[in-house]
């Protein structure tokens, strides 16, 4: 078993290369896949990974254990780095959209990630959501569109966007909670 | 403060604001509880979403490429540990501060990591990294900490703080951090001033968090060139004081 993230992070602060490598091994797959989900581009995704681990190594002391899980903090950095790079490289041609192809019936996808239960719960819950709520989440979270763009793409008034995002996310959370209680994580 | 700012929450979360808009929104966040709550809720509700990403294989050798360049960067950075005059960078910088710098904004080259972490901490509202901390490393590395002042209460006391000038590609920012400040009530705010022979100019406003810590960054380009001799922080009845109304809680000679 690998060491808890928090301990590895503390070792990072003392410039322990081995700790960074352990964190890298643990999160490479998730960080890369999440970056790819956002950028839809292999090259950019690798840049995101590079950015994120550079930040871990150099910007010490930013993660605060009392504020939540290390992985959540890390993923926030990943998302912000991806948004940043996408903005800077707006002209990068998108690769052929492989997402749909990959999405179909990949066996035990959750095995790829450390947090299997969380991965299973969120994937199953997402499927329960209606198409339009899935779209809200995709536009807002993964595409990181502007408030205005989201309104345009959903064809709804600007003033209702926040509410729709919140409703979709709340719905997803309710589904996840129920799943958690049901104990069915297969 | 205004409902209009509250409408920027989504764009803030999604990194769609310009630097200036982002700074304005962060100021707004400091005083708008409902936006803070909404932001925290968004973060919480999106926590598991990355796990929706379908696994994708990176190109082979990524680990090697990433880790070696991270550790290489570190070697380069160690060079900054020595005190290096950054006069050679002068031609790249706007002249706004050159006069003052000749006086006493002493020139220290410091570890880029330190400058970066100061800037990072300035987004104190965001214990989670806000988009403001996502500037790519190459920018961070050319940040130079040009002055580092330790702020104290002239009358003594627990409160302390730090002020730094960070220059990045010609843009100068004043970064002020303070902690163990007395709690604010109502509309009160802490105001940073730069003084030249007792003549104050506003240089940033902030409010404190529950722990009494606060921070603000202020673009120096907005200030006229001045021979600042003192930096002071006062507690003001409101965020808009044009001249100091309250007592000085922290100060340092420049």
Automatic annotation (TrEMBL), chain A:
It holds the Pfam family Sigma70_r2. Residues 121-172 form the RNA polymerase sigma factor 70 region 4 type domain. GO terms for biological process: DNA-templated transcription initiation. The keyword Transcription regulation applies. The keyword Transcription regulation applies. One of its GO terms (molecular function) is sigma factor activity. It comes from the Bacteria. Gene3D superfamilies: 1.10.1740.10, Winged helix-like DNA-binding domain superfamily/Winged helix DNA-binding domain (1.10.10.10). Belongs to the sigma-70 factor family. ECF subfamily. PANTHER family: RNA POLYMERASE ECF-TYPE SIGMA FACTO, RNA POLYMERASE SIGMA FACTOR SIGZ. This is RNA polymerase ECF-type sigma factor. It comes from Salimicrobium jeotgali.
TrEMBL record, chain B:
It is found in: Cell membrane; Membrane. Its main location: membrane. The chain crosses the membrane at residues 105-125. It comes from the Bacteria. The keyword DNA damage does not apply. Residues 108-248 form the Anti-sigma K factor RskA C-terminal domain. GO terms for molecular function: zinc ion binding. Keywords: Cell membrane, Membrane, Metal-binding, Transmembrane, Transmembrane helix, Zinc, Zinc-finger. It is a single-pass membrane protein. Residues 8-36 form the Putative zinc-finger domain. The keyword Secreted does not apply. Belongs to the zinc-associated anti-sigma factor (ZAS) superfamily. Anti-sigma-W factor family. This is Anti-sigma-W factor RsiW. It comes from Salimicrobium album.
